[in-house]
Amino acid sequence: MGTVVALGGQVGGAKLADGLYRVRGRELALIVNTGDDYEYLGLAFSPDLDTALYALGGIAASTAGWEPEGETRSLQSMLRTLGGPGHPPLGDKSLAAALLRSQGLAAGRRLTEVTLDFCRNLGIGARVLPMSDDPVRTHVITDDGAIPFPEYFGELGCEPRAHGLEYAGADQARISDEVLDALHAADLEAVVITPANPYHVIGPILEISGMRELLRKRGAPVIAVTPIVGGKALKGSAGKIMRDLGKEPTPRAVAATYLRLIDGFVIDRQDADMADSVRSLGMQVLAAQTVMRTIDDRVALARTVLEFARSVRDAKAEVE
Amino acid sequence: MGTVVALGGQVGGAKLADGLYRVRGRELALIVNTGDDYEYLGLAFSPDLDTALYALGGIAASTAGWEPEGETRSLQSMLRTLGGPGHPPLGDKSLAAALLRSQGLAAGRRLTEVTLDFCRNLGIGARVLPMSDDPVRTHVITDDGAIPFPEYFGELGCEPRAHGLEYAGADQARISDEVLDALHAADLEAVVITPANPYHVIGPILEISGMRELLRKRGAPVIAVTPIVGGKALKGSAGKIMRDLGKEPTPRAVAATYLRLIDGFVIDRQDADMADSVRSLGMQVLAAQTVMRTIDDRVALARTVLEFARSVRDAKAEVE
Q1: Residues 9-68 of chain B whose Cβ lies under 8 A from any Cβ of chain A
Q2: Which residues lie closer than 8 Å to A283 by C-beta, 6 or more apart?
Q3: Which residues of A touch B42 (CB under 8 A)?
Q4: ipTM, two decimals
Q5: Bridge-based pairing state of the strands B127-130 and B137-142
Q6: Given an 8 Å threshold on Cβ–Cβ distance, is A95 in contact with B84?
Q7: Contact, B120 vs B114, CB < 8 A?
Q8: Does B5 have pLDDT greater than 90?
Q9: Is some CB atom of chain B closer than 8 A to the CB atom of A100?
């Protein structure tokens, strides 16, 4: 068995990453979107990194995977009492990572170093890695101009029509040594794109200058898992943004965004009738249970994806 | 009735300030010690300011007056989980003021402006004013060198022997326009030194360059209330530090630290037998109930102190 690199963000991505971690342990490196990072009250928030850390650390709330379990909201109410901003509705525990991150960055540490410290303290053997130590900010292009994604999602509820997305800073952002090491690994077995919004979660990662080439460098199969099941994004904004962009929110449309990058695509069992349509894009397709309600579901999907990667690799080897 | 200026810090000081506020409303200006301010996790903590704000805002916890009521400790536990520092044991709500203060200061606002904003938002009609917008830091001189007071008190539990105190920055700190206005008021009726540690709460305020002169400028009587009752400081560190400095922790010893500044000194009823001894220092003395267990106690002591100030003023007028 070799090493596995996963790309992700959001709760769905964190769930599959957790499954991969439970199957592969320290052989997993998870590259996480930081395009939705933002500053609030002078603190550095990295929602996708924290969601991943809580999931792999086993402390995510079961009902709200982006928060630690047992979250409270005392500080937020006091902020309002003192005349501070009332949103976003951050819990008390969720502020801890932001506080320590801000302190670390202010002391000159890299985001990657701060994140790996969190991994150590949470007992996570896998490497959770920001996609870059340089800032990238995803904006949604609307009639009112470019809006930072956290504002588009949190304050505007994805209301404004999206004409496109831009990833400010992605072309100058450097790939960290830690991400390079993970993707250069001689025993890299698979690259897994977890089920997350292809536009604002996976998109920014792929836009980092040189990332697409690097993902294919070792020749390991690249497998993506659909975030769209039965015509609906399971969580978040993918469906709405896709419709705004004139695309049907289907697994095929997601797969099309990964053309020339992925070798295989996993659709949900209930969308099995779309398999041929996706296959016609020029990739292998597997239908599986992609909805992860339990920890067992995460582990099962992780195993399924890794087996699929193996079969894709074997098929490629036969052709070559 | 004129205006009243109070000097204070700590819970005892905040209680009497609250009593004065309940009696005089917006005619009160409270000048608060900032010598114990500190940075933690990159945030600006002002414990005495916040204690005063919670008291006058009517949201202080009844059992721990330095905290807002309904305090929780979720963030602190998460900080530890993530490998952050474990102390001081700040609650979630207590962080709100520090966060907003840090943000305000980072944006170039003065500590006084930030504090007056808090007053407005808490519905406090009185002016709660930091003793200066410039940093002053109280250190305790020990065998191991000068230790910042918050560390001496919080982490070291006042254990090291104190040889003295120093107020770093006090000689360069400027008196703010708001404090100048309060002390220049033509109708200034009394200056009240609330019951708080004379060394690390009232001391720093008095050490600000020009403050002692200013306190006497309008000729209003200056009245101090003892923080020592029956040989014990009601809260905090006064007794220990006084003994370290070779002084008996008595009302007389406290009064002696205010020589040539105050006109009258309020001792507790249970120390009434010490009245003559204090009087011999050359000041008027009143024995009253200084222990404030209830809101009514605060109001009663405030009225007593203001009446005492009036009699002192009348006596001065007769002499002149």
Answers
A1: 41-43, 59, 68
A2: A255, A262, A263, A264, A265
A3: 99, 102-103, 106
A4: 0.89
A5: unpaired
A6: no
A7: no
A8: yes
A9: yes
> Does pLDDT of B168 surpass 80?
yes
Residues of A in contact with B94 (CB under 8 A): 78
State what percent of residues in chain B have pLDDT above 70.
Answer: 97
Contact B168, B137 (CB under 8 A): yes
The predicted structure's pLDDT at residue A194:
98
- Residues forming beta bridges with residue A4, ordered by sequence position: A28, A190
CATH architecture of A3-319: 3-Layer(aba) Sandwich (3.40)
Q: Give start and end residues of each alpha helix (H) in B8-122.
A: 10-24, 47-56, 74-81, 94-106, 111-122
Q: Where are the domains of chain A?
A: 3-319
Q: Are strands B127-130 and B3-8 parallel, antiparallel or unpaired?
A: unpaired
Cis geometry, peptide bond prior to residue B150 (ω within 30 degrees of 0): no
Residue A85 has pLDDT above 90, yes or no: no
> Model pTM?
0.92
Distance CA(B62)–CA(B71), nearest Å, equals 11
Q: How far apart are CA A56 and CA A29, in angstroms?
A: 12
Which 199-238 residues of chain B touch chain A by CB within 8 A? Answer: none
φ, ψ of residue B145 in degrees (nearest 5): 100, -170
| CA separation, residue B120 to residues A82, A186, B11, B124 (Å) | 9, 63, 21, 6
pLDDT in tens, B20-60: 999 999 999 999 999 999 998 889 999 999 999 999 999 99
- Predicted pLDDT of residue A166: 96
Taking CB atoms and an 8 Å cutoff, what residues of chain A touch B68? 78, 81
Residue from the list A77, A96, A120 with its beta carbon closest to the beta carbon of B75: A96
**Residue B254 distance to chain A (closest CA, Å):** 35
DSSP state of B155: I
Tell how strand A137-142 and strand A145-148 pair up.
Answer: antiparallel
Region at A58 (left for phi over 0; alpha for psi -120 to 50; beta for the rest): left
In terms of Cα–Cα distance, which of B22, B14, B80, B82 is closest to B46? B14
pLDDT digits over A207-266, tens only? 999 999 999 988 999 999 999 998 776 666 778 888 899 988 899 999 999 999 999 999
For β-strands B264-268 and B284-288, DSSP reports them as parallel
What average pLDDT is seen over chain B?
94
